[in-house]
Design a protein that fits this description.
Length: about 100
């Protein structure tokens, strides 16, 4: 079992993950590895970056989150550089949407 599988096991147990790393440290690649380790028959997931979210309307983001919540699979949202996103105008809204 590798570290990506360990991360998936942590998610199955109801845990949250916070991967910390500077740009260029491999953080984005690590998120992709975790996403790839999620079995599509059990999981539905989104992988977003701040630039992805900057081009989306709040309505689009809400609709994507709703799809995750109405599926019979485990939902997972992986956001690259969520800390940077929190400093933007959409960040606090998204945080409230995800964690309310």
């Amino acid at each position: 079992m590798d570290w990506a599988d360990d991360c998936v096991d942590h998610l199955i147990g109801g845990g949250a993950l916070n991967l910390v790393g500077l740009d260029g440290s491999g953080r984005s690649h690590s998120l992709r590895m975790i996403a790839d380790a999620l079995d599509p028959s059990d999981w539905t997931h989104l992988v977003w970056s701040p630039s992805d979210l900057a081009t989306m309307q709040r309505r689009e983001i809400s609709a994507a989150i709703d799809v995750l919540n109405h599926d019979d699979r485990y939902p997972a949202i992986l956001i690259d550089d969520f800390g940077e996103l929190l400093m933007t105008s959409i960040g606090p809204w998204l945080e409230r949407t995800l964690f309310s």
